[in-house]
Amino acid sequence: MGSGRLGRGVALAGLAALGWGCGYALSAGAGRLPAGAEQVFVRPFENRTADAEAGALVATALRQELGRRGADAGPAARARIEGVVEGSSSGPSSPGGAVWRLALQVHARLLVDDKLVAEHRATPGEDWLAGQDVLESEGRRRLALRRAAEAAARELVERFELP
User: Fold this and answer.
1) Which pLDDT value is given to residue 20?
2) Which parts of the chain have pLDDT scores under 50?
3) pTM score
4) Domain locations in the chain?
């Protein structure tokens, strides 16, 4: 190993030590969830919207978000998240209707051993451009719905995590 590489390695190690000394650290999200919720099962979400796939999209996005944190589990887990997609709306958000806004209203509850630990609401919104025809517009609206579901999942898991 050349002295340049060794010097860079020492410098990086020093920066890492300095960062940890200031309270910065890399941590997995599963360690930040409440006690008993280290592994969480996500039940299918009830869907009260006209978007047939909204409940499934939110539940899937929550499973993926928990998976990134190493906390996704099956039905035997002590903890579970259940909830409802209470509403979805979309409408033009710019003059002339070139840009549309889709908004979701999601309510989720975190239970450990069948006891309510926390509940939160998320109301993410996503903009999308109207297409040149109905099919293109619908495709873009569905992508916005998927992105809103992912944003809801991120927001909910972050709120369930301990500070």
Assistant:
1) 45
2) 1, 15, 17-29
3) 0.79
4) 1-28, 33-160
Amino acid occupying residue 68: R
Q: Which CATH number fits domain 33-160: 3.40.50.1370, 3.10.180.10, 3.30.160.150, 1.10.730.10?
A: 3.30.160.150
CB atoms < 10 A from the CB of 127, how many?
13
pLDDT at 162: 78
The phi and psi torsions of 150 (rounded to 5 degrees) equal -65, -40
